[in-house]
Structure formats: C-alpha cells, structure tokens
Amino acid sequence: MICSQNEIKFYNDFQLTNFNTLKIRSSAKIFYMPDNYGEMMTLFRRNKTKNPIVIGNGSNVLFSSQGVQEPIIHTGLIKTVLSFNQTLEAEAGIKTQALSKMAYEKKLSGFEFLIGIPATLGGAIYMNAGAHGQTISDKLVSAKVYDIENNKVLNLKKEEMNFSYRHSILKEKPYILLSAKFNLEKKDKEEIKAKMDENLLFRREKQPNLALPNAGSVFKNPKDCEFSAGALIDKCGLRGFRIGDCEVWENHCNFIINKGKATSIDYTNIVFEIYSKVKEEFNVELEPEIIYIGKMTKDEKEKWKIMKKN
Ligand SMILES: Cc1cc2nc3c(=O)[nH]c(=O)nc-3n(C[C@H](O)[C@H](O)[C@H](O)COP(=O)(O)OP(=O)(O)OC[C@H]3O[C@@H](n4cnc5c(N)ncnc54)[C@H](O)[C@@H]3O)c2cc1C
C-alpha cells in the first residue's frame, strides 16, 4: 500500500524482488520513493539514527533474505537531465541506458558504454562503473553530493571524487550523490551509434541478459594477475557449479545466475566457495563487487568479512 508522510511516498513491508536484478526475495521494513532530492535530504534528517540506505537500479546489490530493517530510499523518481552545448547535468536516479540514448540524440560521445549497463547514475558513480574502455568518471566535471553527517550539500570537482577501479569517494564517506555534470565530446551520430551497437553486440554474446537474473560481474579482475577473474574460476573447474538456486553461468564464469528461488545464503555460499577454491589453487584473493544490504546470519557475516577486506 502506498502511503505518504508530508507528501513523501513510502511503503511498509515492501517486497524487493523487482528492485534487484538478481531477483532475490527480500523485504524492506520501509521503502521511500522521494520525488526530488530535497525530499531525499529530508528523509535523511528525519531518520538520522536509522542509517537509511539509498539504492538505484539494484543491479549490484544482494538483499538479505532475512529482510532489511534500515529504511530504503529509492532514487528512481529523481531523474531530471539538463543539457547545454556539450554539457549534461543529470540527477542520481536517471537510468544509465536512458542517459546513453539522450547523449546520442544530442550527438554527444562519452556514454556509449552505458547502453548495456542496467544502472542509475548514482549507482554508476558509487561504483565508478565502466566497460569497453570507458568509465563514468572519464567525462565527469563535478558532482553534487549530500554529506549526511554534516547535513550539507557539497560541490565536488572530479579530482575530489577519488575515482579508481570500481571505486569513488561515495564508498569512503557518508555522501549521497544528488547529481553530476559531464562535458561530452561532439561527434557524428553514426559514429556514436556504431559504438553503441558494437557494445550491445559484445554483451549479447558474452554476458547474460536480465532474463537470467544476475548482478553483473561477481568479482573484480585481480591486480597483477595474468588471468581475469572468470578465467581463474574456470580453471578451478567451477563452470556450471551450483549451490541451492545459484549457478556459475555456463558461458562466462564471472557471472552467477539465480535459477529461481535463490536466497542471499545460497549466493553468499557460492561466492565464498569460489573465493576459497581460487585462493587454494592460485593463491589469489578475488574481491566480490556486490554490496550486501540487510541483516546477515552469523555465517554470512563471517564469510563476507573474510572476502571484503576493504
Ligand atoms: C547484466 C549486468 C551487466 C553489468 N555490466 C556492468 C559493466 O559493464 N560495468 C560495470 O561497472 N558494472 C556492471 N554491472 C554492475 C552494476 O550495473 C553497476 O555496479 C552499477 O553501477 C550499479 O548501479 P545501480 O544503480 O544498479 O546501483 P545499486 O545496485 O542500486 O547500488 C549499488 C551501490 O551504490 C549505492 N548507491 C546507489 N545510488 C546512490 C546514490 N545516489 N548515492 C550514493 N550511493 C548510491 C548503493 O547504496 C549501493 O551501495 C552490471 C550489472 C548487470 C546486472
């Protein structure tokens, strides 16, 4: 049932299955859908001690099958985009695929890689998402963030965002992305379209689409290693390996598919088993990309503590 607290929409005991691309069944005690980032900041002020969690498209999160007690704030309605010449300024909840198409329509290059990533801008900046030789930080000029602790809006320049491989300052500090400004490159529409098509074709051949529920690459590619994460998993003989309803994808071993009724416990167990096998065989400690949200069992807590050192 939809409710409203001083006009801010929220739901109680909200089912999260359709709000994560892995399709894990979970529920949030309270789920907010603010219409704009002013409302989002109000929610943080009101829920100060409850540690609300912001989510975008849920394409890199593992919701606990035990449920989520913290308030969840979904950014899906905060999605205004302004453009002027080569500059685009977009709000956190815009879908990255929409952003890619918008840039194409305006003959702007730099977002061709986003066409195949099922994310929001907020999640993409949090993760410093990238593919096909481009990352979200490449063309970023500045970002507007909300500093929860000090209840302040900050304008950060690109250099202040601490971007590196799958990392940004949003992982270090209690900051929420409100919007970001990009300076894109003018190019021919045909050239942009050709790159977008090439990227989509690559994905169709090499990655599962969302008809097979998944959360993208499971592990980051290890530094200083001649093999990718997927190749290491394959060399351990784990292609098609299954625990509960989670399975290592037959076509690419760095993806785990939910075969139907997977739980966060199945996912934790399979990721830990892969991590342990790769460590045993190659002495490489793979780092999972996914962000766990909600109440962990004791066993889940121990396993994620070992795997997520940073
Ligand atoms: C089929 C598939 C393909 C993928 N391909 C790629 C790829 O090529 N490259 C790549 O890098 N990733 C890829 N991913 C992973 C995923 O799409 C990215 O990590 C993406 O950046 C997550 O965005 P999201 O909006 O879904 O974030 P969510 O999963 O909703 O959240 C991820 C994290 O971001 C935080 N967050 C979300 N919004 C905000 C905000 N406004 N402010 C602060 N924090 C926020 C959340 O709290 C959470 O910690 C893929 C995933 C799938 C399912």
Describe this structure in words.
With 310 residues, the chain is α+β, with helices and mostly antiparallel strands. The protein is built from seven helices and 19 strands. The protein has three domains: 2-74, 2-Layer Sandwich (Uridine Diphospho-n-acetylenolpyruvylglucosamine Reductase, domain 2); 85-205, Uridine Diphospho-n-acetylenolpyruvylglucosamine Reductase, domain 3, CATH 3.30.465; 229-307, UDP-N-acetylenolpyruvoylglucosamine reductase, C-terminal domain (Uridine Diphospho-n-acetylenolpyruvylglucosamine Reductase, domain 1, Alpha-Beta Complex), CATH 3.90.78. The strands form six sheets. A five-stranded mixed beta sheet has the order 1-2-3-6-4. Strands 7-8-14-12-13 form a five-stranded antiparallel beta sheet, with helices on one face. Helix 6 packs parallel to helix 7. The longest helix has 19 residues, at 264-282. The protein starts with a strand and ends with a helix. Flavin-adenine dinucleotide binds next to strand 4, helix 3, strand 10 and strand 14.
